[in-house]
Write a structure and sequence with these properties.
The protein is of the alpha+beta class. It contains 3 helices and 4 strands, in the order αββαββα. Helix 1 runs antiparallel to helix 2.
Length: 134
């Protein structure tokens, strides 16, 4: 199963390289549909790249399924050692709108602060790009 995951990762890398080549040479274009990036074009490089990306993700997921241990029967349950408490937070941007999650208030506030920082940096980068265009 590891070989399947490895093959999937290689296909994803090859697909990304082909799509990158298509974008670099102008055979593919990127546009936005609402907030979703869309890659489009009419070249064999782009088609093969997208096909390799899709097949790579499928192979990688199929390879990962075999690595999950099967569930134990109720009679085989042992009292596991107490595991440490996992804490953390994260941010998902839906366009310019951040959705902040956290296991407790401290992590949620930290994730929100990082989201604000990321938004300010993205806005500054965008303004710098606009300033450079005639």
């Amino acid at each position: 199963m590891r070989a399947l995951s490895f093959a999937g990762a290689l296909l994803v890398a090859a697909g990304a390289a082909l799509v990158g080549h298509g974008l670099w040479t102008g055979q593919l274009q990127v546009s936005l549909f609402v907030v979703f990036p869309v890659v489009h074009g009419a070249s064999a490089t782009g088609g093969l790249g997208m096909l390799a990306l899709f097949a790579g993700f499928v192979l990688w997921m199929l390879g990962r399924v075999g690595l999950v241990p099967p569930p134990q029967a109720p009679g085989d349950m042992r009292d596991p050692a107490p595991s440490p408490r996992v804490r953390g937070g994260g941010v998902v941007f839906l366009g310019p709108i951040p959705i902040v999650v956290g296991t407790d208030l401290r992590w949620a506030v930290l994730a929100f602060a990082l989201a604000v920082l990321a938004f300010v940096l993205a806005l500054a980068w965008w303004l710098l790009l606009l300033r450079g265009t005639p």
